[in-house]
Known about the structure:
six-stranded mixed sheet
Amino acid sequence: MIAEPEPVGDRLVLTGRIVSAxxxxxxxxxxxxxxxxxxxxxxxxxxxxxxGTLAAREVAAYAVSRATGWDVVPETRLVDGPxxxxxxxxxxxxxxxxxxxxxxxxxxxxxxxxxxxxGVGIDDEPVALVHEDTAALRRIAVLDxxxxxxxxxxxxxxxxxxxxxxxxxxxxxxxxxxKLRTVLWGWIDEPFSDEEVAGIxxxxxxxxxxxxxxxxxxxxxxxxxALAARCEALLARGTFPEPRPGRPAVPxxxx
Length: 255
């Protein structure tokens, strides 16, 4: 079920660790390019995902992103590095001046932002979680629907200075059961655009070719079948879904 990892050996030079992450997230350089490295050995066991599979799911999400043609997920591959087999992802520089997902005062939702939920801030003040209404962020939301992302937090969206948006942290994807948890609920019942429909169709078509071969080496066959079924169901629905009753719709914490 696991693809053959690329040996990177001494080419991967580790320089630090992101200590706020729940799993081991190391940073460094591969051939002088900044990267993130998540070894399987540093994955925390979960009750609802098979042990040791998160790195493969991250690589699978990148493969699906490539199939859409949208460049949503930064380049990601399976490697054998200093801490063993894991996923390696290209580092993306962000622009702090254009946050895509923010908390704002409940009575002051900025123009161009969509309301998701209300809450209480650290000083007991009413706040609202909002996100931008852009095609770039919608692509991430569609990818989450396709991949069944159980962990789309606000910090898992990277805002590039040119307006492009990348999604990261896709270890909790591709489950056969419905797991969708996301902060990107601003488009409920809105029809998919022609571009979004075309992206989903490209995934379905690619499953009969290179994408299918890649995913067969990374996931269980039932998970690949579930991906295809989700794509078909999304096309049949034609709109962004609403949260399903009886399960959390937003990851915690949301950032």
